[in-house]
Amino acid sequence: MEPFRTIIEPFRIKSVEPFALSTREHRQECLEKAGFNLFALHAADVMIDLLTDSGTGAMSAEQWAAMMRGDESYAGSPSFYRFEAAVKELFPFRHVIPTHQGRAAEKILFSVIGGTGKTIPNNTHFDTTRANVEFTGAEAVDCLIPEGRVASSTHPFKGNMDLVALDRLVADRGRQNVPAVFVTVTNNSGGGQPVSLENLRGVRAICDRHRVPLFLDGCRFAENAWFIHEREPGQSGRKVRDIVRELGSLFDGMTMSAKKDGLSNIGGWLAVNDDELARKCRNLLILTEGFPTYGGLAGRDLEAIAQGLREVVQHDYLRYRISSTGYLGEALTRLGVPVVQPIGGHAVYLDARALLPQVPPLEYPGQALAVELYLEGGVRGCEIGTVMFGRQRDGTEKPAAMDLVRLALPRRTYTQSHVDYVIEVVDRVAQRAGKLRGLCIASEPPALRHFSATFTPA
């Protein structure tokens, strides 16, 4: 298809879901009731919800049709075998274990391989991954390339693993204390940035040399493959499906939230090659999630994921998906709003620390900016910064590497006019950014505090 300036959604809208147009006064009341935590807002009080792209997308007519075929047999459902076949068509793992979402796969895996004295390296652990590692007593260590910690850097693969740092870490800790190396694609915490095939081959070589298993956190595998298709030399003539297969062949297993690039509203899986590890994980699955052929999911959910995996690697869909996110990011860049560069796949990340230099990191500029975006226009984003990552294992607090606000675009949900409205809201807030104040934490839980902490204005 010839390139046009206008982004055309490769689908028609078949049903609509209305939302209320709220007033600033109403949003102020909602914020105060929620303790200035956007997770505590009622979704009905949000106009444009960019809190997350996890499970918030619209499913296709083919997915809804497939759900009608869902078989709810407790054991051996045909829906499971269709789901398993769809996963194995892209990822060559011997054992595919369904879970109700990605963090359940993480919980099971790290309960088996983690523990005190263990170290799990990653390019960057996301919040639930880090929490599940640390819950077992293990240490989660990030080995991201230096460019990945600089919001303005235009490195095409800022999600890459720092190979020298990884090699040194495994050598220092000893292979017996590193039960697995993880790579997250795309790198959510670092701005939705991709990882190159070249880098993944380098990680594989290090793991082979140290005889350590390599695992994929594959939540946004299709978006990562599209960036490889677009940016990595020698990859532009390949089908995304084939790039995904090669990517998957470099790993010994994976965790997956199908709520992202499974195009589903719920679900996930844990996949491994090792027979004994699979046996241990299935035992835990039965204890916590359900029988291995449903894993906490209804048969209709397994069907939706199976169909979603066929759709997510289609080039027309991925071109629209990445172009839509780029449209938002490029418009904000032209307006002078600092955002993480290059624009990521599933979200645009506002650089709150650069936009609000008067707010110290320990007064949470990301949270302050996210609150102001909701107050101004009913747009809900998510802080990815010191609130999420500042609390240390020993109870102390230090600034995160970056203070960002993630505007995550649900898949196939909003139109270009919705995105234009978001651009206007961000621009209005940016014009008075120098007047914004920070926030103080009034209460917080011991882990994953960003979900339920409450705040007061600083």
Gyration radius (Cα, Å) is 21 Å
| SSE arrangement, N to C | HEHHEHEHEHEHEHHEEHHHEHHEEHEHEE
Low-confidence stretches: none
Could you give a short account of the major beta sheet?
A: 5 strands, mixed
Describe the structure.
The protein has 458 residues and is an alpha/beta fold. The chain folds into 2 domains: 24-53 and 314-457, Alpha-Beta Complex (Aspartate Aminotransferase, domain 1); 61-311, 3-Layer(aba) Sandwich (Aspartate Aminotransferase, domain 2). It contains 16 helices and 14 strands. It has helices at residues 24-33, 61-67, 78-90, 102-113, 127-135, 163-173, 197-210, 221-231, 240-249, 275-288, 299-311, 315-334, 352-355, 365-377, 386-389, 416-431, and strands at 48-49, 95-99, 119-122, 139-142, 181-184, 214-217, 253-257, 268-272, 347-351, 379-380, 382-384, 404-408, 439-443, 454-457. A 5-stranded mixed beta sheet has the order 2-8-7-6-5, with helices on both faces. Strand 3, helix 5 and strand 4 (139-142) form a beta-alpha-beta unit. Helix 14 (365-377) packs across helix 16 (416-431). The radius of gyration is 21 Å and the shape is globular.
Q: TL;DR?
A:
The chain is α/β, with parallel strands linked by helices and 458 residues long. The chain is built from 16 helices and 14 strands.
